[in-house]
Amino acid sequence: MNNRTPAEWAFGLVLILGIVNLFADMTYEGGRAITGPFLGSLGASAAVVGFVAGFGELIGYALRSVSGYLADRTQKYWVVIFTGYAVNMLAVPALALAGAWPLAAGLIIAERTGRAIRRPAVEAMLSHAGKSLGQGWVFGLNEALDQTGASVGPLITALVLFLHRGYHQAFAALLVSALLCLGTLVVARLWYARPQGMEEGAAPSPQAERFPVAYWSYVAAGALVAAGFADFSLIAFHFQKVATVTEPFIPVLYSAAMATGALASLVFGRLLDRFGRPTVIVAFFASAWFAPLVFFGGPALAWLGVGLWGLGMGAQDSILKALLAGVVPPQKRSTAFGVFDTGFGFAWFAGSAAMGLLYHASLTGLVVFSVALQLAALPVFAFAGRRRES
Description:
The chain has helices spanning 6-32, 35-41, 46-74, 77-94, 101-128, 130-133, 135-162, 167-173, 175-191, 213-228, 232-242, 250-275, 277-287, 290-296, 299-325, 333-361, 363-389. By secondary structure, the chain is an all-alpha fold. The chain has a single domain (6-191, 211-389), classed as Growth Hormone, Chain: A (Up-down Bundle).
């Protein structure tokens, strides 16, 4: 360990993987900010744009249970991670070469596929550092760096377009962050060939064959949160339709939401390690109220609502993963994260579809649907916490 303490060694792993994810989010979030209008400029219809976005997200979550299981089964975590990042990163700047919407659609789906391949294995690696640092802080710090990249990426593509360059040039500019991501990943592999060594005392045991009840309770609670959490595309659509926020400021709002999520993940991660279950209840109770603010409020309340939405985004990828790591043995965490993400993704997809229909039928119904599902998750979180302590 080069005379470093276990905590210093663990922090180094979290920091370098966080930097990898910062560059990764800078790349694909920068691309996602303009993929809709880019497809439209290539002649794709609104139906095609909606299908590509929805199918990409569905694949991006559904494959995680498969890739997570394969990583645990083969123990080839770094192979899985490098494969996922390579596809995830290179598909985005490759859009600069797309001259027809079918090719662009294929690359957009490939980007989501790459993220699905690498995500569970990366989270499993991060969880090994939690033994020394605390799972809340580990996932909170990683998510903060992740969201920082997500805040900067859309601003890069916006700047390219502001300078009167085209969509192709904007995607090409993201090659820099993509290569920085892959280069940093190589360094991480050289420095941390076997992160499992941070939890050497956690050997496989017969009783770990099945996931505990607490794990499945967290899966159920996460699905409720996901189903009630409106996608930002629907929020942005509403802002544009009713002119709550002027169109040029919508990407700025999204960037602000990502920055809020970065700060929230750090704070909630620390609080989770110190206070435990009450932190979960407070975080998701607060974020549940974004819907009435963004769909019923004026400009000032809209900004507050988007802030709560960003807070919820930060909590989802920090608190939830920290909770899972605390109830699943190290040798099965990649599988556990993958299964959780698959359930979360399907619930998000179903909830988004329902809210899309409710938006045209009853805005009040949409808000009630969103708030009710997220609040329904709170007693499930409480039940899971009691099961963990028993």
